[in-house]
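Anyone up for a design puzzle?
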């Protein structure tokens, strides 16, 4: 859902635009190493037009080939505003890290090694992001802040998972991913959080 809403937001910020310009604007603002493919842009614009959220308003003939111009419709504005105002919870289970830990457990391999290797990579990336504080525009800083927050949360989970495995060695010694139901880690166990390479108050201004 993000790409259609992103294109609507970009169309809402200008009277009209063609797919080529929208693709480059998206990449500048949101791409960050995950640029849109042209085919995805044009197929999304076709769907937005079909659904009445955008409309064709002409053709730009400044070069070859001609480029169809799009504008957002009133229905598109409403859809965009509703999407922006609707909170969305993150996914339930973590992604790649969780999967690797679980697969290490069920295959009889060391989940602790998986956690240790990810801890090292996360800390290195956090130091890199912290070293870049103050650089870039506001979008760069927001993206960096968000990545740091995610890394801090993932690192906290690494530490928590390590303690859970250490306290319940039977989880690793048996090919099972289910900890005993009475296994509880007290809240104070997570109070200190991970070892953060950034000092308090070093967030981008």
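Challenge accepted. My sequence:
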């Amino acid at each position: 859902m993000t790409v259609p809403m992103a294109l609507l937001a970009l169309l809402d910020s200008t009277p009209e635009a063609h797919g080529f310009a929208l693709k480059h604007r998206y990449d500048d603002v949101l791409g960050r190493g995950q640029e849109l493919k042209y085919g995805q842009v044009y197929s999304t614009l076709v769907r937005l037009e079909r659904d009445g959220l955008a409309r064709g308003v002409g053709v730009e003939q400044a070069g070859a080939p001609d480029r169809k111009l799009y504008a957002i419709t009133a229905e598109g504005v409403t859809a965009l505003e509703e999407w922006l105002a609707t909170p969305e919870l993150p996914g339930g289970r973590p992604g790649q890290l969780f999967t690797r830990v679980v697969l290490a457990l069920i295959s009889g391999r060391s989940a602790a090694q998986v956690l240790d290797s990810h801890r090292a990579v996360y800390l290195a990336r956090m130091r890199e992001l912290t070293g870049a504080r103050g650089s870039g525009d506001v979008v760069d800083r927001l993206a960096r802040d968000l990545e740091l927050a995610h890394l801090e949360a993932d690192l906290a989970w690494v530490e928590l998972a390590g303690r859970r495995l250490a306290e319940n060695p039977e989880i690793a010694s048996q090919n099972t991913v289910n900890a005993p139901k009475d296994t509880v880690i007290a809240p104070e166990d997570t109070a200190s959080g991970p070892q953060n390479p950034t000092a308090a108050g070093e967030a981008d201004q």
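A detail worth pointing out: Residues 175-195, 197-205 have pLDDT under 50 and may be disordered.
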